[in-house]
């Protein structure tokens, strides 16, 4: 894991432990993630992060709205994967970013308790995941 990723992880842990974010934490995340973090904060401010919980397992995935006029929604796991084009292009292919804005928005909303939660059956969740 890179030094940047380790620093980011420590900041996320701090935010999650207090369910609040300080100016210093915001500055560090902005330094690490730049425009992606700015965009992520806008998504969170607009309540654009849904956490979809499977019942009875408690497994979850996030659905994050994009910023385009079409308001597409992307399924993501904040620490590992996003279905958006930027994830594959900037992170997987080019290795230029640590996370896309959707992953950052999901992580921030989850840490702050700012997600809109939806519960569905485990069967519905499995179907949703099979379409990734």
Helical fraction equals 40-55%
Number of DSSP-assigned strands: 5
* Lateral strand order in the biggest sheet: 4-3-2-1-5
How many alpha or pi helices? 6
**Could you spell the SSE succession in H and E letters?**
HHHEEEEHHEH
Mean pLDDT: 92
InterPro entries: Znf_SWIM
Keywords: Metal-binding, Zinc, Zinc-finger
Protein name: SWIM-type domain-containing protein
GO biological process, one term: double-strand break repair via homologous recombination
SSE order and pairing:
Blueprint: H1 3-18, H2 23-33, H3 35-45, E1 49-55, E2 60-65, E3 73-77, E4 81-82, H4 85-93, H5 101-112, E5 116-121, H6 122-130
Parallel strand pairs: 1-5
Antiparallel strand pairs: 1-2, 2-3, 3-4
List keywords for this structure.
single chain, 132 residues, alpha+beta, five-stranded mixed sheet, 6 helices, 5 strands, globular
Question: Can you describe this structure?
Answer:
The two termini are 26 Å apart. The chain has one domain (35-130). It has helices at 3-18, 23-33, 35-45, 85-93, 101-112, 122-130, and strands spanning 49-55, 60-65, 73-77, 81-82, 116-121. The chain is 52% helix and 20% strand. It has six helices and five strands. It has a five-stranded mixed sheet. Helix 1 packs antiparallel against helix 2 and helix 2 (23-33) crosses helix 3. The longest helix is centred in the N-terminal third of the chain and has 16 residues, at 3-18. With 132 residues, the chain is an alpha+beta fold.
């Amino acid at each position: 894991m890179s030094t940047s990723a380790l620093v980011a992880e420590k900041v996320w842990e701090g935010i999650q432990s207090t369910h609040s974010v300080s100016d210093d934490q915001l500055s560090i995340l902005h330094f690490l993630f730049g425009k992606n973090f700015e965009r992520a904060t806008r998504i969170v401010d607009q309540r654009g992060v849904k956490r979809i919980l499977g019942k009875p397992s408690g497994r979850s995935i996030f659905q994050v709205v994009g910023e385009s006029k079409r308001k597409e929604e992307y399924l993501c796991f904040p620490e590992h994967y996003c279905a958006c084009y930027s994830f594959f292009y900037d992170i997987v292919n080019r290795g230029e970013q640590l996370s896309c804005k959707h992953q950052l928005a999901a992580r921030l909303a989850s840490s702050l308790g700012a997600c809109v939660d939806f519960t569905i059956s485990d069967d519905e969740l499995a179907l949703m995941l099979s379409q990734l």
